[in-house]
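Supplementary notes for students who missed Thursday's class. We covered one full example, reproduced here. Read the sequence, then the structure, then the short commentary at the end.
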Amino acid sequence: MRTSVLVFFSLWSHFVLVFLLCFPLLLNAAEPNETTISQLSRDEVEIQSGVFLVADRKIMDAHFGKTVVLILHHDAGGSSGLVINRPTEQVLKDLLPTVEWPVPVEAIFEGGPVLRDETLALLFRSKSTPQDMKPVFKDVYVTRKARIFAGILQDETQSKGHRLYAGYAGWSPGQLEAERRRGDWHVLFADVDVLFDEDVSQTWSKMFARTQRRFVKKDPHVLHFKPLSKNIAKKD
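Structure (token representation):
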């Protein structure tokens, strides 16, 4: 009996020592730090036309807090995109009252803080490649030409979806990359169904949840201890 007890305490002391030495590794594996998350994000999806920027929870800015931005253009000269989950109470005839629109009550979304009262953009989902429209990703196109707006709004049969945005989001050269390194944005490939979802109230929370699931990965530094044998204190 005495021998069994001594063996038990000897093994237990070794277990405690190993646990104390490895505890910091376990903490780091359970809760990836900001650098780890930022690195994973950078490695997985590059900033480019046709991706979503998903605002991090720490962003409290009135223009970008809890937003999802579709990137339309990105190169060494800067970046631009449209916030996709900020509907407004304005309709098309409010912004351009002198124009005869086929659908004057078409709802307007806030595309961003830049030129909010001066520019309109139309995102359009088309089965075929439309003329005079810039491709964004898959079957989604964008235009700022009013004459194209009118044609699309009048003939909904040629479209599987569209949305109008006032203003846009813009970044100077290197600005968006710096914000991403800081952890302000997470990047995902854009999703057509999310883009044209009628209920945008949950768009940010759904997309943010997707960004977090990408970080739940098995860490090779996690140590898995085998349980102590039930027979360790068995009488001789």
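Commentary. Residues 48-213 form a domain with the VC0467-like fold (CATH 3.40.1740.10). The first helix runs from residue 2 to 30. If anything here is unclear, bring it to office hours.
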